[in-house]
TrEMBL record:
Residues 350-635 form the Penicillin-binding protein transpeptidase domain. GO terms for molecular function: penicillin binding; peptidoglycan glycosyltransferase activity; serine-type D-Ala-D-Ala carboxypeptidase activity. This is Uncharacterized protein. The lineage of its organism: Bacteria, Katanobacteria. Residues 86-261 form the Glycosyl transferase family domain. It comes from candidate division WWE3 bacterium CG_4_9_14_0_2_um_filter_35_11.
Length: 740
């Protein structure tokens, strides 16, 4: 070893130093990654923004209409409504009643009322309202409703420059064009265009035509109360029009307009009070229209489905289910019966006839005289809320049958008193005849329409269960279950004739619900089918415009369809919802068609006893005789009739089964039997059996006891017969109890 050389040492790394260096390296690497990720993120955002803007332009903004077109507005096409035979019932705006009014000729009350109810921030916004957009966004997100939130400028753009579809693309276009309209036109010019082009109902387009149509006045003659009424119409003319709906609805809308005007400082408290208390006198309607209640009902359906603008200006061809001969006959029947019953305090009547299999409304008479404005004849009772009386009882009994009860189930028709939670009084139901009938079968309880058994039955079933069950069958008006009690089964819950037709149609249709409708088929202005009742086959009907059109469409489809089996024949696919069992539906029909079952209450020879064909029928009369109903059906037709007064004034001496609504019902049925095909008997479903029964023993009938035929689901019918010894044993036990 060379001791003269210095030894070379290698410095050993400290473990701590090494760890720090490693962490620093990792940190630096993470920094680089983060920097790269941020740049990438920015690039992605830029590309995404470019894509969104490009998409917005190409799919939404590319073909925006020019606001200049507002000055070149061309009125839209006429919508025509036909009956099922192709006869014209009504033309919507076939002759537009439009008289242009300069802004200086429009009263300030009209302008203030319009801006108050339609667009409170009209004079301050630039075409769109942030508050309105927020409200519309909430409606879109929560309620999936793309309408709402539009300013007056947006409404003008929507009604004159854009198509009526309800999409977000159209809403964006509407907002963009509205902003540009505000830039090019003054507020006065926008208001003038709006007030001259907005629809006010019927053939009235523009405020000047509306003043003439509703009040027979020129604009300068309008009172504040009248200006407020007109301003409230454009949102929904068919809803608020005094010629279509209950006047109280339009009056409530007018009150809303006046309250807004007062809140915004447009009118004083004195003016508000005077306008609210002022009676409105409407001009007599003289437009040409057939079956006016039905036509207005169809218009309401169309507006609900497609929006007001398309219906009023879209040039639609609407083929309805109305049978013109049946309609004319029913109008005559209703008017004559109301005239004959005026001495009993009756001023109005109504009736509708439907096809339960297809849901078609074949005839609708909403009042004795549509043009009798003195008695509010324009109000459509068929769509109005009225109490149904005992005509609602079959719904309760259907629920009972679905819950395990049978026709033989016994119900005690004996006195009973119910305590009402939170109320000082108690509820003690009584029967129509003021008597008690002891233990009665479910069949006889319904057939004779006894009240006490119906109330006891509902008590066992539950009010909430009945409300839900009724909705399944077609009742749409029981929206507040907490309001109802046991009297619901006696008719305390208001319904419409339309809904009752659906409910009884479900019974007639052996448990299948088909919502009633007045529309058969709707074509747009280009001939494309927008809507059709798939349960109806026009090829099977009598020759008409619609039949010929169906033949042409079928031939055209056949000529282009490679596989003929794919050709769609209307009526081949009928969508109906099964809501109750066939056995339950048939049992209800069997009870309601049994004249013996109702004889204890109505006698053997009432108007309800149809001998030539089998019809099930139920009557209903409300407390103080304010409403009188008769509803009945075969498998081919449902007939609903009503008698009463629009102001709820009680009638007198109206006796169900002898006179009143039952006479309207019976005369309509007689017409159907004489002039239409009606099946002899109610159709019996395959999954039920009918056997002779002894009610006393609850067994099959025997020589000593036979109470007639009862209906059972297959497999649930009694298996043993009664015997003399069995009967004696039951009778003996009953006598012992009486003696005890």
């Amino acid at each position: 070893m060379d001791r003269g050389k210095k030894r070379k040492y290698t410095k050993r790394k400290n473990k701590k130093t090494t760890l720090i260096a490693f962490v620093q390296g990792i940190f630096a690497y993470e920094i680089r990654i983060r920097l790269i990720s941020f740049k990438t993120l920015v690039a992605i955002l830029v590309i995404s923004a470019f894509y969104v803007v490009s998409s917005l332009y190409f799919y939404v903004l590319k073909d925006l209409p020019s606001p200049n077109q507002l000055a070149k507005y061309d009125p839209k096409q006429t919508t025509t409504i036909y009956d099922r035979k192709g006869n014209i019932l009504y033309r919507i705006y076939s002759d537009e009643d439009r008289i242009i009014a300069k802004i200086e000729d429009i009263p300030q009350d009209v302008i203030n009322a319009t801006t108050a109810i339609e667009d409170q921030t009209f004079y301050t916004h630039k075409g769109i309202s942030i508050r309105g957009i927020t409200r519309a966004a909430k409606s879109t997100l929560l309620d999936k409703d793309l309408e709402g939130g539009s300013t007056i400028t947006q409404q003008l753009v929507k009604n004159t420059l854009l198509t009526p579809e309800r999409t977000w693309e159209r809403k964006v276009k509407e907002a963009v064009v509205a902003i540009e309209v505000e830039r090019r036109y003054s507020k006065s010019e926008i208001l003038e265009m709006y007030l001259n082009r907005i629809p006010y109902g019927g053939t009235a387009y523009g405020i000047r035509a509306a003043a003439k149509r509703y009040f027979g006045k020129d604009l300068s003659e309008l009172l504040l109360s009248e200006a407020a009424y007109l301003a409230g119409l454009p949102a929904a003319p068919s809803k608020y029009s005094p010629f279509i709906a209950d006047k109280s609805i339009g009056k409530a809308r007018q009150q809303e307009v006046l309250s807004r005007m007062y809140a915004l400082g447009y009118i004083s408290k004195t003016q508000l009070d005077e306008a609210l208390n002022q009676d409105l006198t409407f001009q007599t309607q003289t437009e040409y229209i057939k079956a006016p209640h039905f036509v207005n009902y169809v218009i309401s359906q169309l507006e609900q489905n497609y929006g007001q603008s398309l219906v009023k200006q879209g040039g639609l061809d609407v083929f309805t289910s109305l049978d013109p001969e049946l309609q004319a006959s029913l109008e005559n029947i209703v008017s004559k019966n109301v005239e004959n019953l005026q001495k009993y305090g009756t001023s109005n009547g109504a009736s509708i006839i439907t096809n339960p299999n297809t849901g078609e409304i074949l005839a609708m008479v909403g009042s004795a005289d549509y043009f009798d404005l003195k008695n509010d004849g324009n109000v459509n009772i068929a769509t109005s809320l009225r109490q149904p009386g005992s005509s609602i009882k079959p719904v309760t009994y259907a629920l009972a049958l679905e819950s395990g009860y049978t026709e033989l189930s016994k119900i005690a028709d004996t006195p009973i008193v119910y305590a009402i939670p939170g109320a000082k009084y108690k509820y003690a139901p009584v029967n129509y005849d003021g008597k008690f009938h002891g233990n009665v079968t479910l069949k006889n309880a319904l057939g004779s329409s006894y009240n006490i058994p119906a109330v006891k039955l509902l008590d066992s079933l539950g009010v909430a269960n009945l409300v839900e069950f009724a909705k399944k069958l077609g009742i749409t008006t029981w929206t507040e279950p907490e309001r109802y009690g046991l009297s619901l089964t006696l008719g305390a819950g208001e319904v419409t004739m339309i809904d009752m037709a659906t409910v009884y149609g479900t019974f007639a249709n052996l448990g299948y619900k088909k919502q009633v409708t007045g529309i058969l088929k709707v074509y747009d202005s280009y001939g494309n089918v927008m809507e059709e009742n798939s349960c109806v086959s026009f090829l099977d009907g009598a020759p008409s415009i619609l039949t010929k059109r169906a033949i042409i469409e079928t031939k055209a489809t056949a000529s282009t369809e490679q596989n003929p089996s794919n050709i769609k024949i209307l009526g081949a696919k009928c969508e109906r919802l099964k809501v109750i069992s066939s056995a339950t539906a048939y049992t209800i029909g069997n009870i309601l068609s049994d004249n013996k079952a109702r004889t204890p209450a109505f006698g053997p020879s009432s108007s309800l006893n149809v001998t030539s064909k089998e019809f099930a029928v139920k009557t209903g009369t409300t407390t103080s005789v304010r409403d009188n109903w008769a509803i009945g059906y075969s498998n081919d037709f449902v007939v609903v009739s009503w008698l009463g007064n629009n102001d709820n004034k009680p009638m007198k001496n109206i006796v169900s089964g002898y006179r009143g609504a039952s006479e309207i019902w019976r005369q309509a049925v007689d017409y159907l039997i004489a002039n239409r095909k009606v099946k002899d008997k109610l159709i019996k479903p395959d999954d039920i059996v009918e056997v002779d029964i002894c009610e006393l023993t609850g067994t099959l009938a025997c020589k000593e006891c036979n109470n007639g035929r009862m209906i059972f689901n297959k497999g649930l019918e009694p298996k043993i017969k009664c015997s003399e010894s069995m009967i004696k044993k039951i009778v003996g036990n009953t006598e012992e109890k009486k003696e005890g």
